[in-house]
Specification:
Amino acid/polyamine transporter I, Amino acid transporter, transmembrane helix, transmembrane transporter activity, AA/rel_permease1, membrane
Length: 454
């Protein structure tokens, strides 16, 4: 995978469906200065991204966050973190599938929700099984459509300002009737943070990057900064163009900008929003299947998940398994509940990753890798702990059930490791079958290598 493809992978995952629906929620929480919590959330996300950049270039392996936690704290911690990451990915795909069947699609065609969800997830699974290159090429096109839609909003909002139909003074309004300036901005920041998650999925493709040391940090920080700049500009024009109370009430806040500006068919923007949702689901589905494959290869999940499709070299069993669970969630859950649970699960993962990078500083490796200043992971950990305090009790109740399942799995794997039955342990070395180009997804076969067990 080239730097350009990785950049678009990360950009497409970050520029997912969140910004198309969350601007109104941020406005309701923080007031007219929507751009401010978006900018703060970008800073918080960049802190944890720094830890990912160091670990992904130091240990470029599928398994990502789970692998880092295993190295730092042992197989039990790795199992828990990996399960939380995997659960977050599966939950996210389920939420996006449910969102795809929602109002944007209904504005174009009337179809039963259950049928749309099934067809949508089956199509994504088939594209994922087809191969990583095909999936990422589709992502490049979809990412450009998503980005084009947001740039369209920025242009329409700027036009409203120029022709005098906007109110730039709203950009300085901080706080709501219920909360003062500081707590309102912090509440909005928690919501805005959701718009930036997605960058963490890219570490599971580190094996498939040609030169991780150079490519990964460039693609990661470049994509985050691009997304952040676009988000802040969208927040500026949306707030200036649409009164705050109307923005807060709308379930399609960016459509309000389109309606006020005129000249662009609402159906066209609905198509763009659907592309954004579909692309986010595709990229997250890739992450979930590769993570399941990596955890199974490390002995943390059933070995059947390591089976590859002959010729294509894609982990088809992992794709089918993760897509099946997402289908059940999409048919039985609501978007809001699934999204809130996702945030909690990812905060567990982010906190563990920030701790892992600090612990692993004591264990240098032979390969050259990116290194972030020590203060960055400490600040990243502090940001995660703060965001934990903003999670509602009802979300904790749901999320702790999944975390509890992960803890049980971690205990089982820890007991297996103590008994010496872990399949990735044999005389200090492990023989594994590498996938072509360093990971799953290509069609020209694989190669065998020997690497030490950490």
């Amino acid at each position: 995978m080239s730097t350009r493809l990785l950049y678009f992978f990360i950009l497409g995952d970050v520029l997912g469906a969140g910004v198309y629906v969350l601007i109104g929620s941020v406005a309701a929480a923080s007031g007219g200065a929507v751009w401010l919590p978006l900018a703060i959330a970008l800073g918080l996300a960049t802190l944890t991204a720094g830890s990912y950049a160091e670990l992904a270039t130091k240990y470029p392996r599928a398994g990502g966050s789970a692998h880092y936690a295993t190295l730092a704290f042992g197989p039990a911690a790795g199992s828990l973190v990996g399960f939380c990451m995997l659960a977050a990915g599966v939950v996210s795909v389920g939420a996006l599938a449910r969102a795809f069947a929602g109002e944007y699609l209904q504005a174009l065609v009337s179809a039963p929700t259950a049928v749309v969800i099934v067809v949508f997830l089956v199509a994504l699974a088939l594209l994922n099984i087809r191969g990583i290159k095909e999936s990422l090429r589709a992502n490049v096109a979809a990412s450009l459509v998503e980005l084009g839609g947001l740039l369209l909003i920025i242009g329409l909002g700027a036009w409203l300002v120029v022709r005098g139909d906007a109110d730039p003074e709203r950009l300085t309004h901080v706080g709501t009737a219920e909360q003062g300036a500081v707590p309102a901005v912090l509440a909005g920041t928690v919501l805005a943070f959701y718009s930036f998650v997605g960058f963490e999925t890219s570490v599971n493709l580190a094996e498939e990057v040609r030169d991780p040391r150079r490519s990964y940090p460039t693609a990661l920080f470049g994509a985050l900064l691009t997304a952040g700049a676009v988000y802040v500009l969208v927040g500026v024009v949306a707030s200036a163009a649409v009164p705050t109370d109307e923005l807060a009430r709308s379930s399609g806040p960016l459509l309000e900008v389109v309606r006020r500006a005129g000249g662009v068919p609402e159906r066209l923007f609905s198509v763009i929003a659907l592309v954004a949702v579909a692309n986010g689901a595709l990229l997250t589905g890739i992450m979930a299947s590769r993570l399941a494959y990596g955890m199974a290869r490390d002995g943390l999940l059933p070995a059947v998940l390591t089976r590859l499709l002959p010729g294509r070299r894609t982990p088809w069993v992992a794709v089918v398994a993760t897509s099946g669970v997402s289908l059940i969630l999409a048919l039985t859950g609501e978007v809001a509940a699934l999204a809130e649970t996702l945030v909690l699960l990812l905060l567990v993962v982010f906190a563990a990753v920030n701790c892992s990078v600090l612990v692993q500083r004591r264990h240098p490796v032979g390969n050259d890798h990116f290194r972030i200043p020590t203060v960055v992971p400490w600040l990243g950990l502090a940001s995660c702990l703060y965001l934990f305090t903003r999670i509602e009790a009802a979300v904790w109740a749901r999320g702790l059930i999944l975390v509890g399942v992960g803890i049980v799995l971690a205990v089982v794997n820890a007991l297996r490791a103590r008994r010496g039955s872990a399949p990735n342990s044999h005389d200090g070395q492990r023989v594994r079958r590498d996938l072509d180009d360093g990971g799953p997804g290509d069609g020209d076969g694989g190669r065998t290598s020997v690497s030490p067990v950490a």
